[in-house]
């Protein structure tokens, strides 16, 4: 089954500048996740192998509308960049072992799955936004920055919904909406960062370069919130 994921990674990294190849790679990855989920009887959201693969697939899924966007003139560059980003995180998943255990009682709720899935969709959109911002800095096409702002806005909405569902899950799991863990603190930092970012975008054309760089930095904050906190700090949210 893992061969499907390896094949998807190869297509992402070496052929994703062609849109049909990108779609084929995403299809293989989704089939892998579907088979894995069917074998587990749940969404594969436990452990670094599953979460990195799910995050990678989320980037691919969120990128689909942009591949057909009229405002995106440099579609081959976007397809290749997104393919490299998607392939990189899927490649990072390969060294980790798969965890085939059933969900612990504390995680066995739809609120947990909803919380995690929405967070990954948000992270994926922040990553796509960072790519669009980089393309804007390279090509100076204002339409790219406009598209990036819409991406960040939708990602921010997903992330806000993830925080709400996470609070509900926390209440059922621990009897409180907030535990002051490192993951929760960095989640708040990320949410505040994008709250400020969305307001910064409204300051006018002279702030365009600053906005583009802020989008790239924001994705770095998102990756640290996801991976950095889990690897460097003890938290009830670690993977």
Automatic annotation (TrEMBL):
GO terms for molecular function: heme binding. The chain crosses the membrane at residues 52-69, 78-96, 116-139, 151-172, 184-200, 212-233. Residues 60-234 form the Cytochrome c assembly protein domain. It is found in: Membrane. Its main location: membrane. Keywords: Cytochrome c-type biogenesis, Membrane, Transmembrane, Transmembrane helix. One of its GO terms (biological process) is cytochrome complex assembly. It comes from the Bacteria. InterPro entries: Cyt_c_assembly (IPR002541), Cyt_c_biogenesis_CcsA/CcmC (IPR045062). One of its GO terms (cellular component) is plasma membrane. Pfam families: Cytochrom_C_asm. It is a multi-pass membrane protein. This is ResC/HemX-like cytochrome c biogenesis membrane protein. It comes from Geotalea daltonii (strain DSM 22248 / JCM 15807 / FRC-32) (Geobacter daltonii). The lineage of its organism: Bacteria, Pseudomonadati, Thermodesulfobacteriota, Desulfuromonadia, Geobacterales.
